[in-house]
Each structure stands twice: as structure tokens, then as C-alpha cells.
Amino acid sequence: MQDAQPTQDATPPQDAPAPDESVIEGSVDGLREQALAIWDNLQSHMLTLGVAIEGAILIAAILPAAFFGPRLRKLIQTQIAPRAPYGVLRRAANAFAHLATPIALYILLQAAVLGLQAAGSSSNLISAGVSLLTAWIVIRLVTLVIRSPFWSRVAFYVAWPIAALDAFGVLDDVVRQLQAFSFPIGEDENGVAQTFSALDFLRMLAVFGVLFWGARFLNHLIQGRINAIDELTVSFKALLAKILDVLLPVVALVLALQIVGFPFGTLAIFGGAIGLGIGLGMQRTVSNFFAGFTLIADKSIKPGDVIEVAGTYGWVTAMNARYVSLRTRDGTAHLVPNDKFIEDGVVNWSHDDRVVRLHAPFGVSYSTKDLRGLARAAEERALTIDRVLKSPAPRCNVMEFGDSSVNFDLRFWINDPANGSANVRSDVYMAIWDMLHEMNIEIPFPQRDLHLKSVPDDFLTSTVETRAEALSNSRED
After folding, report:
1. pLDDT above 60: residue 300
2. In this model, does residue 52 exceed pLDDT 50?
3. How does it sit in the membrane (predicted)?
4. Closest by CA position to 407, among listed 433, 444, 382, 380
5. Quick check: 193 and 184 in contact, CB under 8 A?
6. Which 3-state string (H, E, C) describes the chain?
7. Is residue 50 pLDDT above 90, yes or no?
8. Is 60 exceeded by the pLDDT of residue 15?
9. What is the bridge-based pairing of β-strands 312-319 and 347-348?
10. Buried b (16+ CB within 10 A) or exposed e, 383-401
11. Where does the pLDDT of residue 393 fall: very low under 50, low under 70, confident under 90, or very high at 90 and above?
12. 384 near 424, Cβ under 8 Å?
């Protein structure tokens, strides 16, 4: 038999805790060592003379900023803001005046950073403060100038994260990670693979947002100049406005892609997919878009026209890319899609002429003798209403001999259909009512004669007895 192998040494390693040591004591020692390491790091980086100097500069810069800020505000309000034109530029000047003290503090801190860098000292703390202050100033300027909740939220969620990342010194690392996260978009004409990174996408969104806001501002200025030209027709002005509404955002998007260096040569790859998406998912939207151009080009409707479509009566206040805004007499705005006018048709009360004819039919009793005199009186009463035109003159025609009445139709004209038709028709009816009562002419109601051909023998007897009993009871009461 072979000798038994010696047993392995059960002695614990040198770095293992002794059996009698507590696990809790080991954990406490580990936490103590981590706390000491953090404290040493804090002492070596934060509790230094340079950091103390930067903190003192940050606190000391508040006093001169508070001194020069009100003077800077007064200078802007008295010298710059009154000379700025009304609109965005005037709001921008007032916004800078409102933020005069933070701007003065920003200038002082930037000067302190340049001074520390020239002296070879650290300026990390002041640079972090400058980044956060810059983000706050940008957000406040956007809120005061644009006055848009959307762009205020965009500025808040963009400026603050960038400033915070820059303040903690990790902005460059985040930029490198975004640059590394990319996806292929095709190949150029030389066969070189092209990619589009997440950083390029964010840059494109930021640039497009600025250019889109500038395009809207430019569109507002151009449309104001176009509307001031009296030689242009209303429909042509609306056509130019619609073209600008589409063209300027597209130009802003193309410029944004060009600025970030997007390879346009690879767009041919997505051409088929985009065309298919438009053909299937955006068919109604594209139909409304081109229907809007058709409505303006053929001048079927234009802003200011009084129209009736799908039972809705009102006047056109705006013609947009997707819909026509129709304001009713109730004060509500109906947004009717453009293709609705082409598919279902529209009644345009003021297409060529605003003079329109309304009807007020009525009937009189067959006991009326002078029908011609009644027609003339109705025409004269219609002229007593202010909105009824004297030329063309009202006309009252006999339409038919009805079952219970002689039916007339009083026709009159107005030239302001935008002010409503039901109200002027009501006024005419009121005048006709007064006229009929003054002439003692009855307005009949439907009457029917009942002829009994076959009844039971005791029907008449029981009817007579019932009536006699009723009369007797009434006399007794």
C-alpha cells in the first residue's frame, strides 16, 4: 500500500480574518478606510489655498455686481430699449435690462477666470459657477424674449444639463460617448461608409430649433409686408403665406443638416421608404396640403368669404396648410379640412358678389280678399328693416293655394351676409306679423273635416245623452 498523503495545511491565509474576529468589525474597518480615503481626496483637491481663493472671489464678486447691475439696467432702459423696434428686439432689450445684475456678475467672474489663468492658478470652481450662471441667464432670456412655454422647457432641459456636466468636468466624456454611439446610413459615391452619431443628431436638433425660430420670425415679417401691399389680391396673399409656411421650415431643416455635415448623397437610399410612408401613412395629410393650394389657386374660397359647408355657416378667417378656419356667428372656430371643400362642395355666399337673396315664406287665410294689396304691403314692410336693400327691391310672390292657406314668399336682398341671415329674416318676420295684425288678416292653421259614413245605431243616442248630462251638471254647479 502506498503511504497516505499528508493532509493539507488548514492554517488560514495571512490576510484572512482571524476566526475570533467579528464580521461587523471588519465591515466597520472597511467603511472607515473608505471615509478616510474620501477625506484625503477632499483635502488634496478642495481644502486647498487655491479653492479658498476661488471661493473668496465668488463671494466678493457679488458686491460689485450688485453695484454695477442697477446702473447697467438703467443704461439699457434709457438708451438701448427705446431705440429698439417693437417686437422681439424690444423684448430682448427689456430682458437684458431685467438680467443686468446677473450679467454683471457673469462679466466679473469671466474676468476673474482670465486673471487666474494668466497667473497660472486653478479656476475650476469659478468656471463651474460661470457655467451654471450662464445656463440660468440663457433660460431666463428665452423665457422673457420668446414667451413660449415650449421653448422655456427646451431651454431648461438643455442648458441646465450641459452646464451641470461642464461644471463637474464630465462634459467631454459624455460628448465622446455620444460621438461613439452612431449608426450607418449608407455609403457615398466612393464607397466609404457613412455614419450619423447621436451627437450629430442632438446638434441637428439644436441648430434646427434656432433656425426654425428664425424662420418663423422671418415669415412673420415677410407676411406683414405682403399684407401691406394693396395691389395684391386676398387669395394671392394667402397663397404666398402658405408657400412661406412650407418653404421656410424646409429650408431651416436642410440648413441644419448641412451645418452638422449630414451626407445628402445617402438620402437616395431612404427615398423609396419615405415615398411609401407618405403614400400610406400620410395620405390624408398630403391630400389636405395640396387641396389647400388648389382652393387658393382657383379662388373658390378666400379669407373673408361667407360660406356654408356641411351645415356650418360662417366666414373664413384663415387658410392654413391642413385646414380652413371658419368662424361662426356663435363665436366658435370650426377647423374644416381642406379636402372637405373639394369632396363635398361648399356654398360661397360671397364668391363674386356679397349681395345675396333671402326668403321669408308665410301664409294667410282664404278669407283674405286683396292679395295684391297684401303683397305690396309686405314689400313695403320689408324695406323698414335697415339691412334690407332697396335695390334690388323686395318681391312678394304668391307661391300656391295650399290646403289651409294662400302661401306667399317674400324675397329680399342683403349685402352683409357675414352679419348673419337668421337675424335679419327674424326682423322681417316680425314686421310681417305686425302688418297682418294691423290688417286683421288671419294666419290659418291646418283644419280637417271629419265625415262619419257608418256608425252603430246607438252611437248618436248615447252621444246626445252624454252631452245633455254634461250640460245639466254644469247648470247645477
Report:
1. yes
2. yes
3. Multi-pass membrane protein
4. 444
5. yes
6. CCCCCCCCCCCCCCCCCCCCCCHHHHHHHHHHHHHHHHHHHHHHHCCCHHHHHHHHHHHHCHHHHHHHHHHHHHHHHHHHHHHCCCCHHHHHHHHHHHCHHHHHHHHHHHHHHHHHHHCCCCCHHHHHHHHHHHHHHHHHHHHHHHCCHHHHHHHHHHHHHHHHHHHCCCHHHHHHHHHHCEEEEEECCCCCEEEEEHHHHHHHHHHHHHHHHHHHHHHHHHHHHHHCCCCCCHHHHHHHHHHHHHHHHHHHHHHHHHHCCCCHHHHHHHHHHHHHHHHHCCHHHHHHHHHHHHHHHCCCCCCCCEEEECCEEEEEEEECCCEEEEEECCCCEEEEEHHHHHHHCCEECCCCCCCEEEEEEEEECCCCCCHHHHHHHHHHHHCCCCCCCCCCCCEEEEEEECCCCEEEEEEEEECCHHHCCHHHHHHHHHHHHHHHHHCCCCCCCCCCCCCCCCCCHHHHHHHHHHHHHHHHHHHHC
7. no
8. no
9. unpaired
10. eebebbbeeeebebeeeee
11. very high
12. no
Cell numbers linked to 467: 252631452
Grid cell digits, residue 403: 290646403
The yes-or-no verdict on residue 395 having pLDDT over 90 is yes
Predicted confidence at residue 475, as pLDDT, reads 59
Residue 3 has pLDDT above 50, yes or no: no
Q: What is the mean pLDDT of the chain?
A: 76
